[in-house]
Design brief:
The protein is globular. By secondary structure, the chain is of the alpha+beta class. Helices cover 16% and strands 20% of the residues. The chain contains 7 helices and 15 strands. About 3% of the residues have low confidence. A 4-stranded mixed β-sheet has the order 2-1-7-8. It has a 4-stranded antiparallel β-sheet with strand order 5-9-14-15, with no helix packed on it. It has a 3-stranded parallel β-sheet with strand order 6-12-13. A hairpin with a 2-residue loop joins strand 7 and strand 8.
Length: 318
């Protein structure tokens, strides 16, 4: 309802994520014109719709001229939003804390941290990785169209005021494959902990290694498991092996909740797929406002078609 109330107010759904960053070497502190770790502002769908889900107080507490990492936004970010939590997710608490040291030397002189941030078990289903389509075509002998693999909308970023990547889609008119055939938000539960097929893998350690050396490390720093974290609006379908390992594989539901750069991928994009702690599948919000339970054995070609908004696939039963 929050997504559709937003669309009624602004004639489009919110951008999955949008960030503005400074183009500089070195970093600034909170309150300086350089922002926090070079991030001037960050927004994400789960922040944008707060007024539409009776969370206006939290929304008003968040300073949109700053990033989610800025200490000035700590009180807002720490708010637990029950609507973003799945009761089936095992966790010791409803907040997450992590430090990302890998921006040092590019955007910052020190790591960035989210402390006790309200958790989020859901993700926007932004796009399909072209490498995943190539893999599926190669192993199945199919010829899935590769024309437009974008989902209902994609994220955007500006650097030093120069437009680098603008959000796309987000209007009902953009979703030509049909609102009932295009997903919008799906379960990606348990982040920033890494899970394979229901099992917790490689608990994060501190201090972190100087360079990422495992799927668990990437998940810890880039899992996007907080509702205010902009990376919770960045996702593309890459699949995993049935046991949860790898970077690209045939399993798209409940094999892994990972987003991993192992093998040269992008840690903010190489998403295994959807993940829940429900037996046999995961819940997904479609662009027509319906919520459906997708079986973990869904045909992978159908899954690709459900993500894309303008690729013209003919879908089977799901």
């Amino acid at each position: 309802m929050g997504m559709f109330n937003y669309e009624s107010a602004y004639s489009r759904f919110p951008a999955p994520a949008f960030s503005s960053v400074m183009n500089f070497s070195g970093g600034g502190s909170s309150g300086s014109p350089l922002g926090t770790a070079g991030l001037l502002t960050t927004t994400v769908w789960s922040l944008a719709i707060l007024p539409q889900i009776d969370q206006a107080n939290t929304f008003n507490l968040y300073n949109s001229n700053l990033s989610d990492y800025d200490p000035a936004n700590a009180n807002a970010v720490k708010t637990v939003i029950n609507a973003y939590l799945c009761p089936s997710t095992p966790r010791s608490g409803n907040t997450i804390t992590f430090t990302n040291p890998y921006v040092v030397g590019t955007l910052s002189t020190s790591p960035v941290t989210l402390s006790s941030a309200g958790a989020n078990d859901y993700i926007s289903t932004n796009q399909v990785d072209p490498s995943f389509v190539a893999y599926i075509n190669s192993v199945s002998g199919t010829s899935i169209p590769n024309g437009n693999l974008q989902g209902w909308a994609t994220d955007g970023i500006t650097v030093a005021g120069s437009l680098i990547n603008t959000p796309t889609g987000g209007r009902i008119a953009d979703i030509t494959d049909g609102l009932s055939n295009t997903t919008m938000i799906g379960e990606l539960a348990g982040r920033n902990v890494l899970y394979y097929t229901g099992n917790k893998i490689q608990p994060a350690t501190n201090p972190l290694p100087a360079t990422p050396d495992s799927d668990g490390t990437w998940q810890f720093v880039c899992g996007g498991g907080a509702w205010a974290d902009g990376t919770s609006g960045i996702w593309d379908l890459s699949g995993r092996n049935p046991d949860g390992t790898g970077v690209i594989g045939p399993c798209t539901i409940n094999c892994s909740n990972s987003r991993s750069a192992l093998g040269g991928g992008n840690p903010l994009l190489n998403s295994a797929g959807l993940y829940s702690f429900h037996t046999g599948g995961a819940h997904v919000l479609f662009c027509d406002g319906s919520v459906r339970f997708l079986n973990s054995n869904i045909n992978v070609i159908t899954m690709i078609g459900l993500i894309t908004r303008q690729n013209g696939e003919t879908l089977g039963e799901f």
